[in-house]
Prior knowledge:
Helices cover 56% and strands 11% of the residues. It is an alpha+beta fold. α4 runs parallel beside α6 (162-188).
Amino acid sequence: xxxxxxxxxxxxxxVLGPLSVADYRQDQxxxxxxxxxxxxxxxxxxxxxxxxxxSTQSLITEIWAxxxxxxxxxxxxxxxxxxxxxxxxxxxxERRAQIVTEPPGYLLRLGGAEFDQHDFDILVKEARNxxxxxxxPTAFKAVSGALDLWRGPALAGLTDGELLSVYAxxxxxxxxxxxxxxxELDLLxxxxxxIISELTRLIHDYPLxxxxxxxxxxxxxxxxxxxxxxxxFLQLRxxxxxxxxxxxxxxxxxxxxxxxxADPALDHQFARSEFMARVPS
Length: 281
């Protein structure tokens, strides 16, 4: 995996934000992104199943939904030929990405090209492995690096079709899961005061994501703001009751009781020691 700030000679695909594909060489970047929206959708669809065949029918549906033109297959073939040509650069052949025709459709082989989703997955896996072994600073660095790859909502502007809508939703879920891990690491590392404003924004952006409320309650409590922690719980409970007719999950309810009783187990140093005691030796 290469840092995006390291210049060399390679092609890089990016889906963690608006679709991007570029040829990097020395200190220059040449965009290879198709200008036509239909070709962008096709490229994104191939990236959503990179290394796997995407059927011709799926691609037609993604572009035209339930109103394909009479010669949709012919038009699709032309678009694919144009995409192939656009991806051909003077990068060494073994480092090129390649669109391959393979029944019942097409597939994209990355070859030596880079892909930001793969980089993200590698960094998150590294973070979780280090978290599980108690190497918290290294885990924090890895998951922060993974989150830094994001440039906005996945495939922004290209998710009208079902295939790309599902793909973008899955990517966004992976982003939120990585964010939850990073915030949990912040709490274990004693950064509770620094993340209060971020968590306040997150519960606004994800009003039914109970993990963020739990993190905010704990950050408030460790920052000597017990009343704010309790109000955070009340806010969540009211929202869940009004929107879904349910109560907060058991972990959040247990945290609420612990905050009410000022349980010493909530203190940062105690929680850090308990976590490290559970790490396999």
